[in-house]
Specification:
This protein is α/β, with parallel strands linked by helices. It has two domains: 180 residues, Glycogen Phosphorylase B (Rossmann fold); 180 residues, Glycogen Phosphorylase B (Rossmann fold). The chain is 44% helix and 17% strand. It is elongated, with a radius of gyration of 22 Å.
Length: 379
């Protein structure tokens, strides 16, 4: 009988952390590791897990709060009850905000715990989250591990692992299918289709993208900019602001906003180049998904992006917050079809080799074995 792992996911909305959890669960060896998930909110993630037949429990994730200790205690005991009832062997917090109640629940039951870090934080916040103690920490990039080790010297010694997220390679459409998708999006034959896919947030470099687009259009470059995603934190407020700024700069004809889409992997191969102009990016699923779809990527030289993009081979790295450099990178691919095909093909190969979801799941499972010592996950 396979042993169980309880994943605790805050999941205030469906974004990179939630997508990464689904990829992991899809590729676990179910003869050894049976997933159970406690989710801190309603919405996309619980529904997708239920579709996969994964047991899902809705809980309130609360942190240490002396002003409201009952709610915090209820959060810890809710996780502990699930873990005890399901007879799990290990508790894995899918992101930093989930760890504190999950860690206390693991401590209460004497279970090992894994803290999965996906975004940088300062020393005080990190130590506060790790108050219950942890068995092992996972980081989505070497950049992120180095950041935390710098912020909290000694805390992660001998207990820190870098595990890149995995990305599945979508089937590439036939030329006719690709052309049909482009026509449905209003992309003309003589236009290079530039896609921004991800959360619409200032930290993702959306304003630099608008300014780069204006420079390109004013310079006569034939490009259509497709924005896939939404402002999930603020009820679409930044998306509307972005649309207004695009219109104010005379770019309405050059942009298309698709909002949140579930079919991103199917759409991506129809585009020509992907842009990831982030200010901060620990890893970035948008880059991985674009590479998997065979697109060259113009990305900021920040965080974990240089660990994915091979500059001059699978894409181009440009300075963050630099719209002119971003425009130059986009133009390089927009005006050279052979170059973008060559870089896109190299990126797809790299995604299949360095970021395989099967390899990702095996690495995580190896970490579980190390956490549990010589024991198997069976209980």
């Amino acid at each position: 009988m396979p042993g169980k792992v309880l994943y605790v996911a805050w999941a205030p909305f469906f974004s990179g952390a939630e997508q990464a959890l689904l990829v992991l669960i899809d590729h676990l060896d179910r003869t050894r590791h049976e997933p159970v998930v406690a989710v801190g909110s309603d919405g996309e993630l619980p529904a997708l897990l239920a579709d996969r037949g994964v047991p899902v429990f809705r809980i309130n994730i609360r942190h240490t709060d002396l002003r409201n200790p009952i709610a915090w205690g209820a959060s810890v005991f809710a996780i502990a009850r699930i873990a005890r009832r399901e007879k799990v062997a290990l508790i894995h917090a899918n992101e930093g905000p989930s760890f504190q109640p999950a860690g206390y629940a693991a401590r209460l039951l004497g279970l090992p715990s894994v803290a999965h870090f996906r975004f940088p934080e300062g020393r005080a916040a990190t130590l506060w989250r790790l108050k219950p103690g942890f068995t092992r920490a996972m980081f989505v990039s070497s950049y992120l591990r180095a950041h935390f080790e710098h912020e909290c010297p000694g805390v992660f010694d001998g207990r820190a692992d870098v595990v890149y997220d995995g990305v599945a390679l979508p089937n590439l459409p036939s030329p006719d299918e690709r052309q049909a998708i482009r026509r449905s999006l209003g992309i003309e034959d003589n236009e290079a289709a530039v896609v921004f896919a991800g959360q619409i947030a200032e930290v993702k470099g959306i304003w630099e993208l608008v300014e780069a687009a204006r420079a390109l259009v004013d310079g006569g470059v034939r490009a259509r900019f497709i924005v896939i995603g939404d402002d999930l934190r603020n009820n679409s407020a930044l998306r509307y602001e972005m649309e207004q700024r695009v219109a104010a700069r005379g770019l309405a004809r050059s942009f298309r906003f698709l909002g949140f889409r579930r079919d991103v992997p199917q759409l991506l191969p129809a585009f020509d180049v992907s842009v990831v102009p982030s200010h901060v990016e620990p890893l970035g699923n948008a880059t991985l998904e674009a590479m998997a779809a065979g697109l060259p990527v113009v990305g900021s030289r920040v965080g974990g992006i240089p660990e994915m993009i091979v500059d001059g081979e699978t894409g181009l790295l440009v300075p963050s917050r630099h719209s002119a450099a971003l425009a130059t990178g986009i133009q390089t691919f927009a005006e050279n079809q052979d170059l973008r095909r060559r870089f896109g093909a190299a990126g797809r190969v790299r995604a299949s080799q360095a970021f395989s979801p099967v390899a990702h799941a095996k690495q995580v499972q190896g970490l579980y074995r190390a956490v549990l010592g010589s024991r198997d996950l069976e209980r």
